[in-house]
Specification:
about 260 residues; mainly alpha; Arc Repressor Mutant, subunit A; 2 domains; 15 helices; about 0% strand; DNA-binding
DNA sequence: AATCGAGACAACCGCGGGGAG
DNA sequence: TCTCCCCGCGGTTGTCTCGAT
């Protein structure tokens, strides 16, 4: 069988997603759905392969995704399910509403694995976790229950200030998008999404974006964004601002002066 | 203050399954 | 039945942050 190439390598962007790309993807899917991932990026005007779009959507942009801390119960569930199912992350994710297989996989590799078997993280055994209440206690005291996502959430915002490229604010995009659930119904029209404000995307579009040529159109390119981002070093701040970010990205609201 | 290493997470890659023609 | 294509899954990698030295 001849496998179709994943994507046309030439000219397709890789790496972290930008706010603009996220916004384009969200808007497009809200308008048209995603009947064909392979065709989607071209139709939406994204210089990405369909695979990348699907991954971004399913892991971060989908409205029902729950971001942030894994609760103790969720972590326990993951451990139990992993004991029963092994590395079937998608199956495990199916039992954890709002969590993605990728996220669960990451959490497992980063600390649940160690918790299950601190001496040999690569060996997957059962229930050391339950046999080791002391560690559990420590974890709670240390806020592990609050999970890597927490670190991510907090670091994500600051991350953006340190991205070399100006086009890599993806973490906060995810935060924003993750909180779009309740308001997502509002995103069904061009007017609501602010899609009509998007410049027509041709070959020069991204080069203009990345060179700052259309900076006024997008918050990520706004100088205030950097200030806002660098000022949002804590998760609580981040979460409190979810509606704000949502409005910024989906409705094109202006950023306040700092 | 600078450097290094570990931890954490987002994203990519390749494979296999399954549906359509 | 066979071939082609798309999608989803799991493993892996790249990059950034943070703490220790």
């Amino acid at each position: 069988m001849v496998r179709a190439p994943c994507c046309e390598k030439m000219g397709l962007k890789k790496g972290p997603w930008t706010h603009q790309e996220d916004r384009i993807l969200i808007d497009y899917i809200n308008l048209h759905g995603h009947p064909n991932w392979r065709a989607l990026p071209k139709l939406a005007g994204l210089l990405r392969c369909g695979k990348s779009c699907r991954l971004r959507w399913t892991n971060y942009l989908k409205p029902d995704i729950k971001r942030g801390n894994f609760s103790r119960e969720e972590e326990d569930t993951i451990i139990q399910l992993h004991t029963a199912m092994g590395n079937r992350w998608s199956a495990i994710a199916a039992r954890l509403p709002g969590r993605t297989d990728n996220e669960i996989k990451n959490v497992w590799h980063t600390h649940l694995k160690k918790r299950v078997n601190p001496n040999n993280p690569t060996t997957e055994t059962t229930s050391k976790f339950q046999e080791n209440p002391q560690e559990s206690k420590e974890d709670e005291q240390n806020g592990v229950g609050s999970s890597p996502s927490q670190t991510n959430s907090s670091s994500t915002i600051t991350d953006q200030t340190s991205y070399k490229q100006t086009d890599s604010p993806q973490p906060s995009c995810t935060e924003v998008s993750s909180e779009t659930t309740s308001t997502n119904d509002n995103m069904n029209t061009n007017e609501d999404t602010g899609l009509e404000n998007f410049p027509e995307m041709d070959d020069e579009f991204w080069s203009e974006v990345f060179s700052g040529g259309i900076s006024g159109e997008f918050p990520a390119e706004n100088e205030n964004m950097g200030q806002l981002q660098s000022g949002c070093g804590q998760e609580s701040i981040l979460h409190d601002d979810m509606d704000f970010w949502f409005n910024v990205f989906t409705r094109g609201e202006d950023l306040p002066q700092i």
